[in-house]
Here is the input.
Amino acid sequence: MTGAGREIEGPDGDAQSARALAAIDRGARVVMVLGGAGTGKTTFLHRLRREPRGRQVFLAPTGVAALQVGGQTIHSFFGIPPRLLNPDEVKPRVQVRRLLKKLDRVVIDEISMVRADLLDAVDISLRIARDTSEPFGGVQMVLVGDFLQLPPVVPMAEQEMLGRMGYEGPFAFQSKALAEQETDGVPFAHVHRQTDRAFIAMLDALRRGRGAREAAEALNAACVRPHRDGAQPVLLTPTNARADAYNARGLAALPGEGRAFGGLIKGEFGLDGDRLPVPEQLVLKPGARVMALRNDPARRWVNGSVGTVLGLGAHSAVVRLDAGPVVEIEAFTWERIRYGWDEPGGRLETQVVGTFTQLPLAPAWALTMHKAQGLTLDDVRIDFGDGAFAPGQAYVALSRARSLEGLSLVREIRGTDVRVNRKVAAFMEAFEQAG
Here is the structure.
């Protein structure tokens, strides 16, 4: 695949997925699927959804991540308020209990962003609903992600409280529920996104914090430069404000007024403080750089494909993709779902509770590093600005690039840009060795 998007797994990736699915099939109580960027975790999730194994739900810590995985947020599914809770305050509602009694499996994506106290609230909810003291109420848990990428959000006011509540840290692997439950770990180690072994080694050094200085120096020497001729890169930067400024300048530099496409929200489509998947008011002009944020059912483009607008219709945009073809991209409807239980049919059902209809495009002169998570880009330029502010953020940005040739840096990577949580690194090393 050229342009941008997600990888198709090769034999090593198939073996990783097969091992994870085998752990699920033999009834492992907690299956943890962890691996770096571009190792096939999303492909595994798609396979698990395509090949259903009992009554399962797909959850994620944020609204946008839940949309990507085709499920609900953890908070909305379990009815857990987005704040610190004492254990005796976790009281699942009657309608939630009915559903939880019927579950075989809970799949959580982006587990690195799930706080320890939230995972414990999930554990307590399942125990109460199923009237058992077994961890997670005896429900199989499948936890997917990479703790060396983006961490949980913990406001300053809550950091001390977590310590007082007995937590060594905010990560899901530091939860009390997982301390009581043996886990089956399946490391996803084979990288599909990059093929250059030297580049893969540099990224791995930055991810783990071992040899990071030498890796940063090598990347600085190779990539602090103008971007390669003939290619228009997507610029990645830490903050929404900086990305928005780049996109506003890009649009303003084009002639004409442009056309505004208004998104249509119906029902319940709040994303718990997240941004919508694409702008509610999307202004485009011919010449605008855009990124598709959904897969095309006809497979002409994928989530992450980048291109240039050639023309605009009443409800569509004609885009020349960097990968080559000219395509017409029409409005798409995102569905916010809520899981429920159909008593007469005796089956799990998904109920659409809200929709958002808009062109599945976003301005792509620039994106935040957070928004780029999961994407593969042929051409990427990185502006660290005032510095990466979260552990794993620099790694997330740099690992979007498919090759060194397609990567350029506005400024050198500094030591302060590369942040690795030592406890997380130690946990991941032990996890990989055990697996």
